[in-house]
Give the backbone structure.
Amino acid sequence: MKQTPFTSRHIALGAKMAEFAGYNMPISYTGINDEHQAVRNNAGIFDVSHMGEFILKGDKALDLIQRVTSNDASKLSNGKAQYSSLTNENGGIVDDLLVYCIEQNKVYMLVVNASNIEKDWEWIRRHNADDVEMHNISDKTCLLAIQGPNAARILQPLTEMDILDLKYYTFTKGLFAGVDNVLVSATGYTGAGGVEIYFEDKDDAAARIWDAIFKEGGPKGLKPIGLGARDTLRLEMGFCLYGNDIDDFTTPLEAGLGWITKFTKPFTASEFLARQKANGVEKKLVGFEMVDKGIPRHHYKIRDAEGNLIGNVTSGTQSPSLNKAIGMGYVRIDHAVIGNEIFIDIRDKNIKARVVKMPFFQQS
């Protein structure tokens, strides 16, 4: 298994470790519920250094990004970022990703899922007809996500960059905890606010930044958080997890990601998706909450009142914030109406649930 520069610190802190996307990653420290509430109510730090980062450079860099992503990256100016997807010829999602505009029309950073680094790199390379300069900086890039309503306030003393007023989906670069060329962004996937910190793993930067954050944040209640709570936090917000809620066989329109599917420019599968939009989707990703007792899990079947199969659960959990079982799944479009009763097949019993509007949780 691969390790991040912070693996020894996770183990020293008593984290429960497990393999994730080929990396030895912390799943939990003090328990998922406790860590979840720490992020919702104060602040927590996630090691997400397993994620992938690509740099695209040159006069044709934007053209390449426009060709392979569903969102319109021409709208980005320096310091702005956007959520997007790579789509295959059949409209399926190769990956969901973030696009950071470092220098407009010249330099961009793409942040992709850890399990898809090689797949995404090859996909983009195949479409690089203009010999755009591409650099895979994944192995030398550290990424920490400090999330929660007090995260930016805790970190502000460590930098002269203004991170307190960093708008959602923007970023800045500068000196952080004595380390130069650190990129700080507000593109978190928890719905709790906070920032992400990208920096190169050199000259002991990982240890210096981690220790500085805990020296500043420890007395203020900052806690280390594992991937277990990251999953419950993103699910409460109705955010998709690649490999569960979206994959090569689901389209952005089916996944409720029409807002990142722009037909103002041609891209891979744009014609297919335009036809799908015109004709309407046959299935749709919906959120639901359990009415009767039971916790939905990935791959559980979804049925109608007569017991007919109408879909499958993609994600599910007992929500720590709401104290109720929630989930997401694809159902036939005629069953996707808010308020519609559906039934989750749990151990051969059809347990009642109700389609609800997402996000499940609203951060106050």
Notes: The chain is about 20% helix and 35% strand.
